[in-house]
UniProtKB/TrEMBL annotation:
This is HAUS augmin-like complex subunit 4. The keyword ATP-binding does not apply. InterPro entries: HAUS4, HAUS4_met. One of its GO terms (molecular function) is microtubule minus-end binding. GO terms for biological process: centrosome cycle; spindle assembly. Residues 301-352 form a coiled coil. Pfam families: HAUS4. One of its GO terms (cellular component) is HAUS complex. Keywords: Coiled coil. It comes from the Eukaryota. It comes from Parambassis ranga. The keyword Chaperone does not apply.
Length: 369
């Protein structure tokens, strides 16, 4: 039975894309997208079912009813408080205006008496309210300086002055409120300031309706701005999501394209460097040939050939002498250590002979001189 009810409630909202849009519109505070609802159809059905029992703020119908009643009661108490507060502030403004006028111009005695009486009555009433302990939870709370409301009531003006003040108070208060209303009207519509007082009074009667109309218009614009803000946030979110997907796709395309062309690029670079190395190698060989051509002329080449032939002939002769000396040395080595001692003795005697010949030669040179 509950499944049938749930299906009926879901079908009453819509199907497919219509259901997704209605769920998103009914729960604007949830950070959801249409893609989330498509990927989670059971969750979408759950939200569609909840939409039949709660409002857009998430409150149930009974709780919303109680909240509306409490709001109405609060508004009623607020209006009563604002009425009394407005009256009290109006009286204080009248007293302040009287003090300002008294310092700038002469004020009639009856007006002075009226304002002084009203000021004393307000002060006494305020003190009595502060000293009244009937509204406090602690009845044993000590009074301020031992005063009671009866002590403060003794400071009230005379009954005669109070009666006169009460008789003229509605007229004075009405005059003050009218002047204040006219100043508000002049602020709201500056072009009406030059018109007559009667016309201003007539237009003043429509001021409340106009202000209320302007307030409703401002609230509607505020609601419109809030809806546009929500729509802009959702569109921004969708835009960022799509932009992220496009960036990922673009990155994958770039990566694939780079991997495909990297091999061809490497081959091209390899061929280029191979060709460049071959060119440098040929250039080196060419430079070497040029250096050889500049260094070795035909005459120098023929001279080098003759020198080479002569050196080769001398080398051949030296090799032959070496071979003969090696044969003699090998024959001498056969004689053993006795021949080695004779050779050393022969070498020593030869050095002594050479030394004596050099000394004899030197001696002969000096003797001839």
């Amino acid at each position: 039975m509950s499944g049938v009810t749930e299906t009926a409630s879901v079908s009453s909202l819509g199907k497919g894309d219509s259901l997704h849009h209605q769920v998103l519109a009914f729960f604007p505070l949830c950070d959801l997208t249409e893609e989330d609802l498509i990927q989670n159809p059971q969750f979408c059905k759950l939200l569609a079912t909840l939409a039949q029992h709660v409002d857009q703020t998430g409150l149930t119908v009974p709780l919303k009813t109680e909240l509306d009643k409490a709001e109405q009661k609060l508004q009623s108490q607020r209006r009563n408080w604002l009425r009394s507060e407005t009256l009290h502030r109006g009286l204080q403004e009248m007293i302040q205006d009287h003090c300002v006028k008294k310092h700038h111009a002469a004020v009639p005695p009856d007006q002075t008496m009226f304002n002084e009486t009203m000021e004393k009555c307000l002060l006494v009433a305020q003190c009595v309210r502060q000293l009244d302990l009937s509204s406090t939870t602690n009845q044993d709370q000590p009074s301020v300086l031992g005063l009671t409301p009866q002590h403060v009531m003794e400071l009230m003006p005379s009954e005669k002055n109070v009666q006169r003040m009460r008789q003229s108070l509605p007229r004075q208060l009405e005059k003050h409120l009218k002047e204040k209303s006219l100043s508000i009207l002049s602020y709201y519509q500056p072009e009406w300031e030059s018109e007559s007082e009667g016309l201003k009074t007539s237009k003043l009667s429509y001021l409340s309706a106009q202000l209320d109309k302007e307030k409703k218009r401002a609230e509607s614009l505020k609601e419109f701005c809030r809806e546009n803000t929500f729509l802009l946030q959702r569109q921004t979110q969708l835009y960022l999501s799509e932009l992220t997907k496009c960036i990922q796709l673009f990155q994958s395309l770039i990566l694939d394209h780079r991997l495909k062309i990297q091999t061809d690029l490497d081959l091209k670079k390899l061929e280029y460097f191979e060709g460049k190395c071959e060119l440098v190698s040929q250039k080196i060989k060419t430079e070497m040939v040029e250096i050889q051509l500049d260094t070795y002329t035909p005459d120098s080449i023929s001279a080098h050939r003759k020198i080479r032939e002569k050196l080769e002939a001398e080398l051949k002769a030296c090799k032959a002498d070496k071979q003969s000396v090696e044969l003699k040395l090998s024959s001498f080595e056969i004689l053993g250590k006795e021949f080695e001692a004779l050779a050393e003795e022969y070498s020593r005697l030869k050095k002594e002979i050479e030394l004596k010949n050099w000394a004899l030669k030197e001696f002969t040179q000096y003797s001839e001189k």
